[in-house]
Structures are given as structure tokens and as C-alpha cells.
Amino acid sequence: MSSVAVVGAGLAGCEAALQLARLGISVDLYEMRPHQPTPAHTGDSLAQIVCSNSLKSTAPTTASGVLKQELETAGCSLLAIARQCAVPAGSALAVDRNQFSISVENAVAENPLITLIREEVKSISSLEHGQVIIATGPLSSDAMTSEISKLTKIDGLHFFDAIAPTVTVESLDLDILYRAARYDKGDADYLNSALDKATYHNFVNELNNAERTEVKDFDKSDLFEGCKPVEEIAASGPETLAFGPMRPVGLNKGDKRPYAVVQLRQENKEGTLYGLVGFQTRLKYGEQRRIFRMIPGLENAEFVRLGQMHRNLYIDTPKTLTNSFTLPDNPNIHFAGQITGVEGYVESITSGLVTAWIVAAKLKEITLPPWPRETVVGSLLFTYLFDNTAKRLTPMNANFGIMPAIKGLPTGRRNRQERKEAMSARSSESVSEFLEHASVKALLAD
After folding, report:
1. Rounded Cα–Cα distance for residues 294 and 305 (Å)
2. CA angle 284, 288, 294 (to 5 degrees)
3. Structurally, how many domains does the chain consist of?
4. pLDDT tens across 341-351, in order?
5. Cα 12 off chain centre by
6. Is the dihedral of CA 353, 310, 141, 386 positive or negative?
7. Which one of 169, 293, 324, 408 has the lowest number of neighbouring Cβ atoms within 10 Å?
8. Same structural domain, 170 and 26
């Protein structure tokens, strides 16, 4: 079999390379650093963890913990290395960053089927490989960004990523929220929270005094002005929000018009996730939880993702890629990692593993079954990423809100733990069945 080119030696790229080698396929792994640096990375180490050293919870009743169980059952390379480099962090898996990076690089260097090439890939057509995996991440070089833009036929992939918080519907007080569409146009698809004058001004005051994260120079983009953070709008005047994202006109509650309204819009087909409309923000995470829970009906909101604004590069996967993470007109070019719309360390590793298996199966002429919908892998990579409900894909990490509900279990906050335990058990059973499938066993056979 011909070798595979993996472009980018971050978490997804290294996992993809190690998985391909595990499956007997030679790999040329390209990394542009140190010749071409990024604004966030330091040095030239592989699989570098830039921000927090935590890979989140290992508890089996958390989506992050369930995802780790699924990956470890499947033989994930980087999670095994992370376990060896773990530092005390309670129920979370945190690592010594330097040791983790060194260990990953050693694993790559010691594998006879992997060749590490330290050079920037500026053109995919320059690679003489039958199959290519692009895993260059949100900090791709300018040349690679331009190349991806040409390949996907989409301009403006390098932009200010403005994201509003997302909450689970089961954590909302639906006795307080009401369904309505502005001026009753269309179906009443939005959930609405009505604020009176005092509540509104208190909310604005808290926004104005909240702690914010700094926006680094390399994050600046024209999109910033077109997608202002909610706290920036609030700072421009006490009534600006009430005439902007929180405009109550056409959203009467009964026969009364509220002073201001916060709208929540459905974000997935199942209706388990809702996003706060117009609430892009760069408030610190703790401040977001505190202040947004002041909104009536959101007092106990469970945030599956918090708002943020940062430089990002990712593909609108449902509009651009096939479910093999390839380009429709070029099935030999695959994408993996954050560039596909997953967010988080372990989620990027997951994407690398799954894409490597897809490529290996293609080379071995094996037809793999789909990852079960009942797993975090299946729900995140093959359901959420290809959900066209939203106008534009919003990057997402592992959470129970994207997974199918278990029929027969009671809903509501009181029964949340029971549902999580049931989802964890269902995931374990589903992964075991998936790995026992004849095609998967043939792929993983020594």
C-alpha cells in the first residue's frame, strides 16, 4: 500500500499517524514548525498542548469520561501516552505538558512506519501520496489556509470566531420561558425569556462590570465589528441591548410586551441544545455562568459550551465534506481535528483516530460500519458535525446534549444522574458491539 501524508503534527495528526502505523500503513508526517512558527505554539515539539493541561474529566458519568472510555477501548495511542504523563488532578486527566509532548514525539520517532518531515506544506498537489489527511488545526499557516480555501471553494476561513453559549434544554425552566416567533411569523420555534425593566438594567450593569478575556493581536479581523460581543454592545449605552439582540418588539408574552427579551434558538435536530441568540461574548467563563444565569428561566442552566471569540479556522463540515471527511470532488483528501469543527483536546484526538481508520479501511478495501449513534464518537463526529439545523456549523465538544435520549427514562434535573449513568452504560455496550463487527475486526487484525 502507498504511504499516506498527514499534514500537521498536532494532537489529531499524531494520533492519525500512529493509528495508520498500527494498521500497517506507512506515513509521512509533515510539521511546519520550527521553520514556520504559529502565534500560540513555542518551540518545535509535536502534539503540543497550548492552553490548559487538562484533558477534562475521566468520570464515567460525564461525556468527556465516556468519550475517553470509547477511545481507550478502541486502542487510542495518545490517551495511553497521556495516562503515562498524568499529574494529580482529581477526577480529571491532566498531563505534564512537556513530558506528554516528548513522549508523543518519541512514539512517532520510534515507529519504523512513520517518517517525520519538518517542512511547511504549501500545496496539497505537491504531495506524491495517494491519500492525504489535513490536520493543520485552527492555526494553519497562511499558505495552507489559502490552499484549504481553494480546495473547499469557501473564502474567509480565517476569521474571528464569535460563538454564543449553548445550554441543554432540560436544564431550563420551561415554566418561565415561553415559545414565540417574532410577530408570530412562522412556527414558535424560539424559547424566550422576558425581562422587566429592573431585571434588564441589573443584567446590563453586571455585563458592564464583568471580567473579560483579552483578545490577542493575532486575533484581529474585520468580522469583529460585524459580530460584536454582547458586553461590548451593552457598554455602548444602557438601552442598546434592548434595541438590539434583546429587542422585545413582536415578542409579546400574552398581551404584554416585555421590556427586553433573550431568545434561545434550537441548535440540533433533537432539540436538546439551545443557543443564546446574539450573545457572542469574550467574558471569562466563570462570569458567563454567573451573569447568564441571571436571565429568567436560566437560573440552573447547564452550559455545554461557553461563548468565546478567537482566531479560528474550521470548515463548515455539513456543507463541505462527505461523511468520510473528504472533499466531494476529491475523495483522496481527508480532514481531521479541529479544522472539521470539533473542539477540545480529546475531541481532536478522536477525529484523528476515526479519520485514520477511514483511510486505512479504504486502502485495505474494507467497508466499515458507521460508528454507533449511541456513542459520543458517533454523536459528535457523524451526527452533530453533519447537522444542517444551524446556518453555520458551530464547533462543539463532547457533551450528553448531542446524544440520543434513552426512551423510558424520566426527564428533568432530578433524574439527570440516572440518565448519564444509562448513557454511559449504553455507550460501553455499543462500542463493544462496533469493535466486534467483522469489518472492524478485519481492519484491526495484526
Report:
1. 17
2. 150
3. 2
4. 998 899 999 99
5. 13
6. positive
7. 408
8. no
- Based on the domain organization, do 152 and 169 belong to the same domain? no
Of 277, 310, 343, which residue is a domain's last? 310
pLDDT at 212 over 70: yes
Q: At what angle do helices 345-363 and 77-84 cross, to 10 degrees?
A: 140
| CA separation for the pair 104, 9 (Å, rounded) | 10
Model-level pTM greater than 0.90?
no
> Tell me, what CATH number does 397's domain have?
3.50.50.60
Domain coverage including residue 65: 4-158+313-444
| CA 110 – CA 433 distance, rounded (Å) | 33
What angle (nearest 5°) sits at the alpha carbon of residue 390, between those of residues 388 and 393? 80
pLDDT tens per residue, range 30-71: 998 777 666 556 667 898 887 667 898 899 999 999 999 999
- Beta strands 92-95 and 54-57: pairing type? antiparallel
Residue 54 is predicted with a pLDDT of 82
The reply to whether 207 and 107 lie within a common domain is no
CATH label of the domain that carries residue 169: 2.40.30.260
Residues 6+ apart with CB under 8 A from 211: 283, 284, 286, 287
Amino acid symbol at 278:
G
249 and 318, same domain (yes or no): no
